[in-house]
Amino acid sequence: MLSQKSIDIVKSTAPILADRGVEITTVFYKNLFTAHPELLNLFNSVNQKQGRQQTALANTVYAAALHIDNLGVLLPAVKQIAQKHRSLGIKPEHYPIVGKHLLEGIKEVLGDAATDEIIQAWADAYGIIADVFIQVEIEMYKEAEEQENGWGEFKNFEIVDKVVESDIITSFYLKPVDGSAVPTYNPGQYITIRLAIPGETYILNRQYSLSQAPNQDTFRITVKKENEMNPNGKVSVYLHQNLQIGDTFEVSSPAGDFYLDMESTRPVTLISGGVGITPMMSMLDTLSKNSPTRPVSFLHGARNNALHAFDKDVQQLMSAMEDTTYLAFYSDENKLLTKELLAENVLANGDIYVCGPVPFMKAIIPTLYELGFAEEHVHFEFFGPAVSLEPALA
């Protein structure tokens, strides 16, 4: 139980964290990986280089300071982060290491302003916050392991098929090496794949949405090949160019809190940009098989037709449904998903799912709110660490 004095001290630091949070988390990660380079096996180094992980952690620490007297407010965010932690193999023993270097980061950046009293208050607060994460994640590991055909952390999968979906996007069908079936999952969830790439010092982890309806036979991930000069392209280029049918790598159990509500009968609007179409394909495939009478509107943006994955698949799935709308927008032809088109094609009184590149998300989601769609009905997922929808706050 955190004392009232500690609560007051932590809350009083919120303005400082708002101002210098990213500076603190940048120092934290630098010191953490210097002292514990083995943790680079768990982190996506690209998110580090782009500053997204530092920003996401700074936002989390700031939110914790604001709500330290009512952590229940943060539980949805905790569960979202915990899903990623579970899919990466974060364990209870990692939390003391993180806490030590986070406190040292606060002290290093704030200097004398970080008094012993402030550091102790944050140490107490961190212990409570870490315990919340640990307990949530223990339960998630248990749930993943105990479900039918489940496992707790990673197991080996084999590529059993490789299908080109567009000029830059390819699907990989995966089966467990041990011959078992695969567990079910919620349409929209992702898996982590773990690769040891020749020439790379550390294991590389990447999270990819499952892009088909759940079945007991295979997982399917659909991967955009990034530019080879882009640091983010290491895994995608290796998958496209080096891995073939018969090759294996490690895979986590499905995770994530962005998924289709299958218990609802409300209309569904799917809005995606680029490779953000992947979780939508799992949702649409599931709707086509299990809820063909549920109204669906699918709005997808791509640069051009050659880069548009799953166009024919969407049309085929929708042909088995009763009430559907499908529109594609190509930016190379100056056809964009405008506010007017959203107003005309997003289904009223329904659930809206959005996924795509960060600029796409920052354009679409606030526009949906401006049009009067309720926030509780707008569901979205960023690939990688969450980013603020407000550019000024990011």
TrEMBL record:
Annotated FAD-binding FR-type domain residues: 152-261
Cofactor note: Binds 1 FAD per subunit. Binds 1 heme b (iron(II)-protoporphyrin IX) group per subunit.
Signal peptide annotation: none
Domain Globin: 1-138
Binding-site list for NADP(+): 274-279
Enzyme class: oxidoreductase
Record: residues binding FAD: 190, 206-209, 382-385
Annotated site location: Influences the redox potential of the prosthetic heme and FAD groups: 84, 381
Chain segments carrying region Reductase: 149-394
Entry EC no(s): 1.14.12.17
Binding site for heme b: 85
Active site: 95 (charge relay system), 137 (charge relay system)
Cofactor(s) annotated in UniProt: FAD; heme b
Keyword terms of this UniProt record: Detoxification, FAD, Flavoprotein, Heme, Iron, Metal-binding, NAD, NADP, Oxidoreductase, Oxygen transport, Transport
CDD domains on file: flavohem_like_fad_nad_binding, Yhb1-globin-like
Positions of the record's site feature: Involved in heme-bound ligand stabilization and O-O bond activation: 29
Family the entry assigns: In the C-terminal section; belongs to the flavoprotein pyridine nucleotide cytochrome reductase family.
Domain notes: Consists of two distinct domains; an N-terminal heme-containing oxygen-binding domain and a C-terminal reductase domain with binding sites for FAD and NAD(P)H.
NCBIfam families, A to Z: PRK13289.1 (NF009805)
Function: Is involved in NO detoxification in an aerobic process, termed nitric oxide dioxygenase (NOD) reaction that utilizes O(2) and NAD(P)H to convert NO to nitrate, which protects the bacterium from various noxious nitrogen compounds. Therefore, plays a central role in the inducible response to nitrosative stress.
The name this protein goes by in its record: Flavohemoprotein
Species this protein is from: Paenisporosarcina macmurdoensis
Gene symbol of the encoding locus: hmpA
